[in-house]
Write a structure and sequence with these properties.
Number of strands of chain C: 2
Number of helices of chain A: 11
Largest sheet of chain A: 6 strands, mixed
CATH class of chain C: Mainly Alpha
Oligomer: heterotrimer
Strand content of chain A: 15-25%
Structural class of chain A: alpha/beta
Radius of gyration of chain C: 19 Å
Number of strands of chain A: 10
Shape of chain C: globular
Structural class of chain C: mainly alpha
Distance between the termini of chain C: 39 Å
Strand order of the largest sheet of chain A: 6-7-8-3-9-10
Number of helices of chain C: 11
Chains: A alpha/beta (about 260), B mainly alpha (about 350), C mainly alpha (about 290)
Number of domains of chain C: 1
Strand order of the largest sheet of chain C: 1-2
């Protein structure tokens, strides 16, 4: 059974159609990149899936269940996690507290005024585990906003992982990351993808081509092409639709600098 | 009792060890009335700060719960002659329920809209207090008794004397203080801070943000009701001004000046506020007798603005941060082993309160 | 139920609505453009009214007070923007609200220091003193002229926004502030201009309202609350919203004053609450 399906998903903004009749299906364990020029509808698609934005038409199914108009906290509870273009962490809290809080959200103690010390240590231990997994250990007591941008990105991934989601949507995980830290983010994404289904929006073609097992190309709200990297690279429609991407597909280095 | 390893907890323990005993002897320094006033407003501030400092919500009409709490107690004492403690619990309940009603409408909106809706609620409350004269006495107000506490089995405790009343209010304040301290450290309190820090992220982590905000709002209203009841008995007079927007403004000023970052903030803010409002005009008039002395709000306003610009963590916030930095250094200086212990000491000791929501993140 | 007073009170409401519109427009514009919540905007209004008193007392001429008041306040607004507000961009809205609230309180005290705590009277200029026959009722001439005048000003504003290049820049700025930056326009000058315009309109409103309402030091804070209600009801950042909101609030206020006077303040807030619950972005605000 597909883990995520969209059927005729459409989103209008007044007169503008941002997402046009998109029907896609993703199997569990996939690592798929969604690419396309700005305005192609990629982020809007993600927003509809997680519930940050309502769909104008169409349906979305997660593990066979309709989730089309659920709110973000409901989709998160079902097992969908997401990271954003602009890093979304808890800035004034420490690194450890960031993750500990995220771990806590998945428990039943959220409304508790009291919790046993043992339970607390459990949450903390799990938080440290995750920090080790995303390679931000050693900085537990640092205030999150003092981290480097790449570390913040990793921390955000840690927050996402804290809930052990089944499906993870990453919106431009390498955007704004310093060139020498990109590999770190990429390695993390690959590691995560071993156990979970990962969809990512990316502009960095190096990254896209190296890790994706499947690429979906979006253009003006619709799906232009959908297949393994080798096919996409040589697809004439893709090449024709926008020369810019064409250049990027041919010479990944230039894209990285864009 | 040994000092905590965690820097924030350590600073809290040290501060508490100094400040709380001071409250026991405060009537030696200030007249009992002023000292009591200080504690009442500190209680109100603690309740308000759960919303502003911890959750990041600015309520512009918080006097509503304060005033309704006061009215509840007054009317129950006057008409039903029920014992004091149940009356106070009823005042708290009314404060909480009123907050629930307002919260159900206002919580869904953010920022300015939320502030305006809470302001609207406050205005409606003021209107009710002013016009429902059969009940509230309207502009003439109501006279408030200060009955003794009757505990079955233990007898009566008179609190009519100013000094006795001070210690009664002190007990109420300490209960409130401990309650909010517990919340700050609890999973609930930490989640509120997460909501303050990044509501979107909290939502995408499965948090039903509205429900948490609503609970915080209700808790805040409940203890605002307590403060209102205490204030009514302090001044022995209940009046719609308790519900007026100026009272809402007062608690905002107190919380901000004291520091929204810390649980001691409202106490410091209240001290500053009560001192200024009681003494500045008197001292000024004694020295110069000029008309300018009536305009002391200009000074308060200026202080408030300056604090917003330069000292957003309030009087206590900055000091607390400096002390915590120092504690961190002390703990890590004690050698790498001690530092390790400090690091690994479970943060279960104390939540990181983070910065005031008044900082741009 | 006093029905024959109804048309008069409706007209009164429209008239107050006109005053509110001028102030609300400034607030809305400043918020939409500069993302700045100015709770001290009512001070401009109060200053306009007090200056009207000063000028008419000194010179004996109301007509002079009109431009002097509005321009003086506009100048003050410009100075404030260029010196203080520059530092405050990008702050959290809650912080802006609190900060400008503190400033408003300070200004109120300063006004009392300068002009004294007792309210001041300003009389309607002799030329406009008198009644006009509106057909269904007799109505003070001054008020009719006020409505006509503000309508003209509103039209001029609308024209400026819709038909001129500067206007479209401003409109673009309220929708997408980053866009204006990208267009290479001198953003800080645009901001100063917008803020000054807001101040000018509020000062103008103050002068116009001076003969009608009691001039007192609290009028700044009194009006800012109503003005924010208008902005919230009409929709932040919307010019049409300021107009619709202003007129709606004015009429509601006036009619409540006719049938249930003590509830006037409360009724306005209840209307606001209803609008916000039904339509969170305001009647004409952007979703």
């Amino acid at each position: 059974m597909a883990i995520l399906e969209t059927h005729n998903l459409t989103r209008d903004f007044g007169g503008l159609r941002a997402v046009n009749d998109v029907s896609l299906a993703f199997e569990p364990g996939e690592l798929c990149s969604i690419i396309g020029p700005n305005g192609a509808g990629k982020t809007t698609l993600f927003r509809m899936i997680t519930g940050l934005m309502p769909a104008t038409r169409g349906t979305i199914l997660f593990e066979g269940q309709p989730i089309t108009n659920l709110s973000p906290h409901e989709t998160a509870r079902l097992g969908i996690g997401q990271s954003f273009q602009i890093t979304n962490i808890f800035p004034s809290l420490t690194v450890l507290e960031n993750v500990r809080l995220a771990v806590q959200t998945a428990t039943r103690v959220n409304f508790n005024f009291v919790v046993s010390a043992a339970r607390y240590r459990e949450l903390e231990a799990r938080a440290r585990q995750i920090l080790a997994q995303v390679h931000v250990d050693g900085k537990e007591l640092e205030v999150a906003k003092n981290l480097s941008y790449g570390e913040k990105r990793s921390l955000e991934l840690g927050l996402v992982l804290a809930r052990d989601p089944k499906l993870i949507l990453l919106d431009e995980p390498t955007a704004g990351v310093a060139h020498d830290e990109i590999h770190r983010v990429v390695a993390l994404v690959e590691q995560i993808a071993r156990e979970k289904t990962v969809l990512l929006i990316e502009h960095n073609m190096d990254v896209v081509l190296s890790i994706s097992r499947r690429i979906v190309v979006m253009y003006q709200g619709g799906v232009l092409a959908d297949g393994p990297p080798a096919t996409i690279k040589t697809d004439p429609a893709v090449q024709q639709a926008y020369l810019g991407v064409h250049e990027q597909l041919r010479g990944g280095r230039h894209a990285a600098r864009a | 009792m040994r000092l905590a390893q965690n820097p924030q907890t350590r600073v809290f323990q040290l501060t508490a060890a100094v400040v709380l005993p001071l409250t026991l002897v405060l009537p030696l320094v200030l007249p009992a009335f002023a000292a009591t006033e200080l504690l009442v407003w500190a209680t109100f501030g603690l309740a308000f700060n759960l919303l502003l400092g911890y959750t990041g919500l600015l309520s512009f009409g918080h006097a509503l719960y304060f005033g309704f709490g006061g009215y509840t107690l007054t009317l129950l004492l006057m008409h039903l002659r029920i014992p004091l403690l149940p009356g106070m619990l009823a005042a708290m309940a009314v404060g909480g329920v009123t907050a629930l009603i307002v919260g159900l409408v206002a919580i869904r909106r953010i920022g300015v809209y939320f502030a305006m809706l809470t302001l609207a609620a406050g205005q409606v409350g003021f209107f009710i207090a002013m016009t429902w004269t059969d009940f509230t006495g309207g502009d003439n107000g109501l006279s408030v008794p200060r009955p003794p506490i009757t505990i079955p089995g233990l007898g009566r405790i008179e609190i009519n004397e100013p000094l006795n009343y001070y210690y009664f209010v002190l007990v109420c304040f300490l209960i409130t203080f401990l309650f909010f301290r517990r919340i700050a450290d609890s999973p609930f309190g930490r989640l509120l801070q997460g909501i303050r820090e990044n509501e979107l992220r909290a939502r995408c982590l499965g948090v039903n943000v509205e429900r948490f905000k609503l609970l915080a709002f209700v808790l805040s209203g409940t203890f605002a009701g307590l403060a209102g009841a205490l204030d009514a008995m302090l001044v022995k007079f209940m009046h719609p001004d308790f519900v007026k927007w100026t009272t809402s403004g007062d608690v905002i000023v107190i919380t901000v000046i004291g520091g929204a970052r810390s649980i001691f903030g409202p106490l410091f803010g209240s001290t500053v506020f009560v001192t200024l409002s009681d003494y500045i005009p008197k001292v000024c008039r004694a020295y110069s007798g000029s008309q300018l002395c009536d305009r002391w709000w200009l000074l308060l306003g200026a202080i408030f603005v300056l604090f917003m610009l330069f000292l957003r963590d309030g009087v206590w916030g900055r000091i607390e941060m400096a002390l915590e930095a120092r504690a961190t250094r002390t703990l890590t200086r004690a050698g790498p082993g001690a530092a390790e212990t400090a690091r690994l000491a479970p943060l279960a000791d104390r939540a990181v309160e983070g910065e005031s929501p008044l900082r741009r993140s | 139920m006093n029905v024959d007073l109804l048309p008069q009170f409706v007209f009164n409401g429209l008239m107050s609505g006109m005053i509110y519109l001028l102030i609300a427009f400034g607030i809305s514009l400043i918020f939409g453009m500069m993302d700045f919540i100015n709770f001290a905007h009512g001070t401009f209004y109060a200053l306009g009214a007090y200056l009207a008193w000063t000028v008419t007392t000194l010179v004996g001429n109301f007509w002079l007070a009109l431009p002097v008041g509005a321009v003086a306040v506009a100048l003050l607004a410009m100075i404030i923007e260029t010196t203080l507000l520059r530092r405050l961009h990008g702050l959290h809205h809650t912080l802006q609200l609190l900060l400008t609230f503190g400033v408003a309180v300070m200004m109120q005290e300063l006004i009392i220091i300068v002009w004294g705590p007792i309210g001041k009277p300003v009389s309607v200029p002799a030329l406009l003193d008198g009644q006009v026959n509106l057909g269904f009722t007799y109505y003070p001439l001054y008020r009719v002229c006020l409505v006509v005048f503000v309508a003209a000003v509103a039209f001029a504003l609308w024209y400026g926004l819709e038909k001129t290049k500067m206007g479209s820049l401003i409109r673009a700025g309220t929708e997408r502030a980053e866009m204006v930056n990208a267009l290479g326009i001198n953003v800080s000058r645009l901001f100063t201009g917008v803020f000054t315009l807001g101040g000018f309109l509020a000062g103008l409103a103050g002068v116009l309202a001076a003969p009608l309402v009691g001039i007192n030091a609290y009028m700044g804070l009194d009006i800012i609350v109503i003005a924010f209600v208008v902005v919230v009801v009409g929709g932040m950042g919307s010019f049409a919203g300021a107009v619709v909101g202003g007129l709606l609030v004015g009429v509601v206020q006036s009619l409540t004053g006719l049938y249930w006077p003590q509830a006037t303040d409360m009724m306005v807030f209840i209307v606001m609450a209803i609008v916000l619950v039904a339509r969170p972005q305001g009647l004409l605000g952007r979703a």
